[in-house]
Write a structure and sequence with these properties.
about 350 residues; alpha/beta; Rossmann fold; 2 domains; seven-stranded parallel beta sheet; three-stranded antiparallel beta sheet; 14 strands; about 20% strand; globular; disordered N terminus; CofD; Putative gluconeogenesis factor; cytoplasm; CofD-like_dom_sf; Gluconeogen_factor
Length: about 350
């Protein structure tokens, strides 16, 4: 960052992704008083989000809901109500969260998801900005290593095959995919752009494969940071090291665009690996320092683990501290390193 900016304003940090890991980082960045913009995936088609998407041909609200809560400053009881999920025996409302229903209702009122999210952000006293990556639901497509293909975010990991490449399209097919309002300016004006943590092929890449978002991430003057996942994910990243995750990102956009990798080197206890050996996680992601150094000029490695009764997560406070420090201390355009070496 330019030295004249240091200590004169909050760093502008744009965070791109979805899933359960993203809110942890956003909440910690909010508490550090960063100027945060969250750009949230809209390709989800499973669970409550998928059901509402199908019924209303609407942008899936689940990831947006979790991000709004992470950045909100409303009382905890109100957050709990917003996050309440109806039980399976509740028939028509089975599996739906109140927050998802509110987002869908507000989108119907306002006529689009962008205005709905901005209204709810104001009502929920959100500290920062929340933008859907696109203003209509996107369809995720995957090509596997054997050349076969699959469509649908929830279906892609179920094949048991290694994913080679993903792309997104509008539901209408031939209509061009475009980023939501203010997303590109948020990326271009940021001091730092953060990717993840989150599912590589189904939470992070769906955003980057929106052409103008991918272009902006490659062209922004901001440093681009990738937060490596702690655990592999069944149907997506079995056997991939932290360096492999970066290779996949760079392959998809056709160049090395990530400047900084934040990667965990803390050892996940065996009992947590056993606990997480289900439909979501398998093993700890291997750390490949040499491979990382071939992909990015700066690597930040530490024990970033937070062990909870629900499983293994990033220590949001510790990761946010590294992001915040790097936003102030590193020079912009680290990517020029690769142009000169």
């Amino acid at each position: 960052m330019k030295s004249s900016l240091i200590n004169k304003r909050r760093p502008k940090i744009a965070v791109i992704g979805g899933g359960t890991g993203l809110p942890v980082i956003l909440k910690s960045l909010k508490e550090k008083d960063a100027d945060v913009t969250a750009i949230v995936t809209v390709a989800d088609d499973g669970g409550s989000s998928g059901a509402l998407r199908k019924s209303f041909n609407a942008v899936p609200p689940g990831d947006l809901r979790n991000v709004l809560i992470a950045l909100s400053e409303i009382p905890e009881l109100q957050k709990e109500i917003f996050q309440y999920r109806f039980k399976s025996q509740d028939e028509a409302l089975s599996g739906h969260t109140i927050g998802n229903l509110i987002i869908q209702a507000t989108a119907d009122m306002r006529g689009n998801i962008y205005d709905a999210v901005q209204l709810l952000a104001k009502m929920m006293h959100v500290k920062g900005h929340v933008y859907p990556a696109a203003e209509e639901p996107l369809v995720l497509h995957a090509r596997y290593m054997d050349g076969s293909t699959q469509t649908g975010e929830s279906q892609i990991p179920k094949s048991g095959k290694m994913i080679d490449y993903v792309a997104v399209s509008c539901v209408e097919g031939r209509k061009p995919v475009q980023a939501s309002r203010k997303v590109i300016s948020a990326i271009m004006d940021a001091d730092m752009v953060v990717l993840g943590p989150g599912s590589l092929f189904t939470s992070i890449l769906p955003n980057l494969m929106i052409p103008d978002i991918g272009k902006a991430v490659m062209e922004t003057e901001a440093n681009v940071v990738y937060i490596s996942n702690i655990m592999t994910q069944l149907g997506e990243t079995e056997g991939l090291s932290d360096a492999d995750h970066l290779r996949v990102l760079h392959k998809h956009l056709g160049k090395r665009f990530v400047d900084i990798a934040i990667t965990n080197i803390g050892k996940v206890p065996e009992q947590y690996i056993d606990q997480e050996a289900n439909e979501e996680f398998l093993l700890q992601v291997d750390h490949d320092f040499k491979g990382l150094s071939d992909e990015v000029p700066l690597i930040i490695s530490d024990d970033f683990l937070e062990l909870t009764p629900k499983g293994v997560y990033h220590d949001g406070e510790k990761v946010a501290e590294e992001i915040f420090r790097t936003a102030f201390n590193s020079q912009r355009k680290i990517k020029q390193y690769f142009e000169n070496n």
